[in-house]
Recover the amino acids of this structure.
């Protein structure tokens, strides 16, 4: 624990604060893991890896270890709330799936997608934006520029979907609607 380290090294109060800040940065960077019991653990030592997630429109993903470049398969149920291009912490599982070993997402360290093009719809009176990219999962409550059902809007993500709850997105600009012929070209340019 942080307290045990500070005691073992005989740190003064100011040094304890610096240690806490350094440990927090290492956790955020995915270099060490803080357990529920506030113990700090080396990632590789405990079978945790840090890398980038690539998701598939069918709902599964692949994780690429930043250090070894090895790929791992992640089934949909093991993605948790991770999205395409997120930097994640994973735990490697003993079973394999096809040619790749299998892993599960433990934690999202950094979001890789900050915006998306979404289609506006209304569900039970609530306006929502649904990403048109099938690799991006989740539904978002919508706020921002005026848009109608069927419009496509460039949205910035304010809150990511978590625990089967909707995220929150703000509409920044209208891309078009389903009837616009030039919409596909604009979508490519924005991406």
């Amino acid at each position: 624990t942080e307290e045990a380290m500070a005691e073992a090294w005989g740190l003064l109060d100011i040094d304890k604060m610096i240690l806490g800040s350094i440990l927090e940065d290492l956790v955020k960077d995915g270099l060490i893991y803080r357990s529920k019991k506030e113990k700090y653990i080396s990632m590789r030592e405990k079978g945790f890896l840090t890398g980038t997630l690539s998701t598939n429109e069918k709902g599964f993903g692949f994780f690429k270890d930043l250090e070894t470049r090895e790929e791992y398969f992640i089934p949909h149920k093991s993605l948790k709330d991770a999205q395409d291009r997120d930097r994640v912490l994973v735990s490697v599982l003993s079973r394999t799936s096809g040619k790749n070993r299998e892993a599960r997402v433990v934690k999202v360290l950094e979001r890789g997608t900050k915006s998306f093009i979404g289609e506006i719809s209304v569900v039970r009176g609530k306006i929502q934006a649904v990403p048109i990219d099938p690799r991006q999962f989740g539904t978002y409550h919508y706020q921002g520029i005026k848009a109608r059902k069927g419009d496509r809007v460039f949205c910035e993500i304010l809150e990511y979907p978590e625990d089967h709850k909707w995220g929150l997105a703000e509409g920044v600009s209208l891309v078009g609607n389903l009837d616009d012929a030039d919409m596909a070209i604009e979508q490519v340019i924005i991406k």
